[in-house]
Amino acid sequence: MKIDLTDKVALVTGGTGGIGDAICKQLADAGCRVATNYRNEEKARKWKEQCKKDGYDIRGYQSDVSDFAACETLVKTVEKDIGPIDILVNNAGITKDATLRKMTPDQWSMVININLNSVFNLTRHVIEGMTQRGFGRVINISSINGQKGQIGQSNYAASKAGMHGFTMAVAQEVARKGVTVNTISPGYIATDMVMAVPEEIRNKIIATIPAGRLGEPEEVAYMVTFLASEQASFINGADISINGGQHMC
Ligand code: CAA
């Protein structure tokens, strides 16, 4: 079975990061016109150069996903440039790990704003168009740690668990209009975010993964591409784990 997303338009947040980059490229491989946002101009410049070398034409826009008005502008600009958004992948996310006794209000609110409020900020601006056109896919990239919690991640786990609550509610609101809303919960994937965990702690975590290794960004992107397809139209409100068997629910 070949997934064909020819002429679909996808907005993937956080496309310059490890998982986001793989998602952008696989959606483009399947035929989508793809856009992403970024915050860091210098990182984005290098990423764009690499994309060009690899033969990808992915539009990048500087935008802050934690800002509701900025998200409205981003959506309008993408739609003007490459067409109405059919597929929204809420992938942008950060960590600010600290045990609760040490966590500052800033560490709490930055993570909630960027990981969770962004999902509202963007989905709110695309959902009407999707339901009116009778097709849409919203795919929220959550985390194993939203399902099971993790020492030092009360902010991150709350944001990621919140994403799936949002998924389940909105999935019911739009199910009759050809729009699906799903969550993917990756486990520990070989990205800069995971590599930033101190090595000793990271090795202890890897030892708890039955597959015995970290996941690859492409292994998450395959699922995104499938969920974006017509073939996945009966999958709605699901939370799909991709974690090498580390957590089963
Ligand atoms: N396991 C067991 N106990 C732990 C622990 C751990 N991982 N981390 C801390 N503790 C214990 C300490 O031993 C200490 O116990 P005592 O007071 O009895 O000695 C207690 O908790 C308090 O520790 P601190 O507040 O001093 O914690 P810290 O400042 O040393 O560091 C931490 C805590 C920053 C959270 C560190 O443990 C850490 O980086 N953990 C990794 C968190 C993690 O997995 N992040 C994932 C990032 S990747 C990602 O999020 C992607 C994804 O979606 C999967």
Explained architecture:
By secondary structure, the chain is of the alpha/beta class. It has one domain (9-240): Rossmann fold (3-Layer(aba) Sandwich), CATH 3.40.50. The protein contains 9 helices and 7 strands. The protein has helices spanning 18-29, 41-53, 68-82, 105-133, 144-148, 154-174, 192-195, 199-206, 217-228; strands at 9-12, 33-38, 59-62, 87-90, 136-141, 179-186, 239-242. The protein has a 7-stranded parallel β-sheet, with helices on both faces. α4 links the parallel β4 (87-90) and β5 (136-141). α4 packs parallel to α6. The two termini are 28 Å apart.
Uncertain stretches of 5 or more adjacent residues: none
Average predicted local confidence, pLDDT: 97
Number of domains: 1
User: What is the C-alpha radius of gyration, as a whole number of Å?
Assistant: 17 Å
What overall form do the CA principal axes indicate?
Answer: globular
SSE arrangement, N to C: EHEHEHEHEHHEHHHE
Q: How many β-strands, per DSSP?
A: 7
The description of the largest β-sheet is: 7 strands, parallel
Judged by helices, strands and strand pairing, the structural class is alpha/beta
Which CATH architecture? 3-Layer(aba) Sandwich
